[in-house]
Write the structure tokens for this entry.
Amino acid sequence: MPELPEVETIKRGMAAALLGKSISNMRVNRYDLRIPIPQDFAKRLMGKTITKLERRGKYIIMHMGADIVAILHMGMSGRINIFPVGIEYAAQKHDHVVFNMDDGTCFAYEDPRRFGMLYLADKDWRKAKRFAFMGVEPLDDWSGADLFESLKNKKASIKSALLDQRVVAGLGNIYVCEALFRAYINPTRRSNSITKEEAGKLVKHVRDILEESIKSGGSTLKDYKHTDGSLGYFQHGFAVYDRAGKSCPNKDCASNILRIVQAGRSTFYCSSCQK
DNA sequence: AAGTGGGCCTGAGAGC
DNA sequence: TGCTCTCAGGCCCACT
């Protein structure tokens, strides 16, 4: 499941392979993603040059020429498969859009579960609701005081709050579980019970874990691969995620990792270490 | 009015 | 072995 580090890794792969190249041909195989691809999608992008790639939360923003941006979200199972010059395009069953670039590079947007989205916007893309209310980028200027401020009036659990993209952008279930473990904070705590000091710790651990994961090329769960098909390595480092019933990684702790459901999503934690 | 939970979707894995 | 069933979860939106 692509969270911030995976999306960042994909964006870097795309930047290295695609920047400055123009679309010479493209094909839409399926329009009915969760948000339908507009019918004139290909027509509007044909001939456009990829001038800039950026990431906001879990979205990739592809600047296409001067005034069109293509907004890309990988949902749960989305991938970008890039085929450099000399490597033949190998079609996947769920390649919804295939782009051919002017130098012979080809790339495909693949998403079996179709939870992702791909749409066009203009220079004002940040004004769309999903970006206008999006929270801070955790790797930018983000302090414990900032997090404390956004939590102090919230009653929802700290787990739910960290998943809320309006509080902080880019975190998903895996990294939230891991960061709460590292900060020794119980995921069922109410947001407004988190102290300034704890908020500071959380910010530090969220940033650490995201940076470590980006360094190792993102996590690899069943759905995630790099743009060249290789795997990331960070998943070997999970302390709690998907480890229900296994022993707590802390040597001096005899407890097992628990799995509970919060707001419809699995939470993994150690009830002895996380207070 | 903030918080919760259903719906979307397919493939992997479990269980019989 | 091969089938069926359950579960995974990011985001949107309806409901309370």
Remarks:
- The beta strands of chain A are 23-28, 50-56, 59-64, 68-73, 79-83, 95-101, 106-110, 117-121, 258-262, 265-269.
- Residues 1-3, 34-35, 58, 73-77, 113, 115-117, 130, 163, 165, 172-173, 221-223, 264-266 of chain A lie near DNA strand C (CB under 10 Å from a C1').
- Residues 220-224 of chain A have pLDDT under 50 and may be disordered.
